[in-house]
Design a protein that fits this description.
Blueprint lengths: L1 H16 L6 H25 L3 E3 L6 H20 L7 H25 L2 E3 L7 H26 L5
Antiparallel strand pairs: 1-2
Helix pairs in contact: 1-3, 2-3, 2-5, 4-5
Length: 155
């Protein structure tokens, strides 16, 4: 529980204090996407196959807090600082850095009882995190293209 509180406070401070490099609309739409992606994933891996859960195997407020606050905040921070105009190598390093952070956070969450593995193994997440970050980037790229198409003189 302490990790959830610390993560919430740290992410809130970062999200609200960071200089914004993405628009409010980008934050809103990518946050909704992150929530939907997590809900779909958890529907199968957590609730159908019982491979993991947050805090307890039942649906609870803490699980919803993780899905509706932690994941959108993390995706907002990730995309806000994504080096869009840098080289491919820089982008790959950024994604790998975030993937390592996510793996460490998952490990820490397991150690503290925030996240319980029940058949899931940490090494399963190794290829998953880079793919998830790429999906977030692709979704964000699509949003930016749609915004430019709708509002070419405002972007």
């Amino acid at each position: 529980m302490l990790l959830l509180v610390i993560t919430t406070v740290v992410f809130a401070v970062i999200v609200f204090m960071m200089p914004k490099h993405i628009t409010s609309l980008e934050i809103y739409t990518t946050s909704l996407f992150a929530i939907v992606l997590q809900l779909i994933t958890d529907t199968y891996l957590e609730f159908k196959y019982r491979l993991y859960w947050y805090f307890s195997p039942d649906v609870n407020f803490l699980t919803l807090w993780v899905i509706f606050w932690i994941y959108p905040a993390a995706s907002t921070i990730f995309l806000n600082f994504y080096p869009r105009t840098k080289s491919k190598l820089h982008k790959i390093k950024y994604i790998l850095g975030w993937s390592i952070f996510a793996l460490f956070f998952e490990w820490l969450a397991v150690q503290t009882g925030f996240f319980i593995h029940n058949g899931w193994r940490l090494w399963y997440s190794v290829p998953i995190y880079p793919v998830l970050f790429l999906i977030l980037i692709l979704n964000w790229t699509l949003i930016c293209k749609l915004m430019f198409k709708l509002y070419p003189d405002k972007i």
